[in-house]
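Protocol step 4 of 6.
Sequence for Two pore domain potassium channel family protein (Seongchinamella unica) entered exactly as in the expression construct, tag removed. Do not edit the line below.
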Amino acid sequence: MFQNVILGLLVMVGCLFVQALLVTAAMRTYARHSAAVERGSFGSTMLVICGVMIVLVVGNFLQVCIWGALFIQLGEFEDFQVAVYHSAVNFATLGYGDIVMSARHRILGPMQSLNGILMMGVSTAVVMSALQDALQRMRSARLDNGNTD
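Step 5 output, structure tokens:
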């Protein structure tokens, strides 16, 4: 079990690295399109926030695939789609239980769930931060233009 815990921690660190790269990409996406936010249009602001969210969701899915690849490598699954499905259920903490791993590696399921909770929390924080900043910029732009709606 100790080896699985170490392996799980290493994958979690790798996922944190992926998450950090994607957070950086999401924030660059936001910064690159900040002019659209400063125009004060709700529609353009939401498009920018959706862009940030999509970057982060892609990052979370990439992490699901990393865990799925690990499960394949360990011999838990033969089909990548099944491994990714099982991984997504763990990562999202759904816990369906329709597909289970062997007793030998099952500690990795809860470890992946912890990883998913943490990484989705980071994604949520980034989206909320961008949304709060965008709403503040949108409000400031409207006030500067004399529009108090």
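Step 6, annotate. The radius of gyration is 19 Å.
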